[in-house]
Amino acid sequence: MEPFVTVQHGQHAAPVFVVLLIMFIVFIGLICAAIKVLIFCKISSKAGYSWALGLLMLVPIADIILAFFLAFADWPVQKKLRKLKQQEQKPKT
């Protein structure tokens, strides 16, 4: 006689594990993207640009261009500092 109920262990465990793993990876990716945007928003605002410039980090090609722009551009903060130093060096008449 065969039993009415047959138990097969682990048959449905693999797809559930894969779904949980994918959800975990997506969650970590979203957290990393949020941290990256937050950092670049802060860098943009400290450089003298609008903080919203950091939101370009969400656009695939613009993130590379923004990083190069911030690295090599003459920041407004630097321009103001240079202007103040020039005003200090001028002899007062």
Supply database-style keywords.
93 residues; mainly alpha; 3 helices
Structural description of this entry:
With 93 residues, this protein is mainly α. The protein has one domain. Helix content is 65%, strand content 0%. The protein has 3 helices and no strands. It is rod-shaped, with a radius of gyration of 27 Å. The mean pLDDT is 86.
Please count the beta strands (DSSP E, at least 2 residues each). 0
Mean pLDDT: 86
Low-confidence stretches: none
How much β-strand is present in the residues?
Answer: under 5%
- Number of discrete domains: 1
In this structure, how is the largest beta sheet organized? none
Structural class: mainly alpha
Provide a compact summary of the structure.
The chain is mainly alpha-helical and 93 residues long. It has helices spanning 13-47, 62-72, 76-89.
How is this fold's topology laid out?
Blueprint: H1 13-47, H2 62-72, H3 76-89
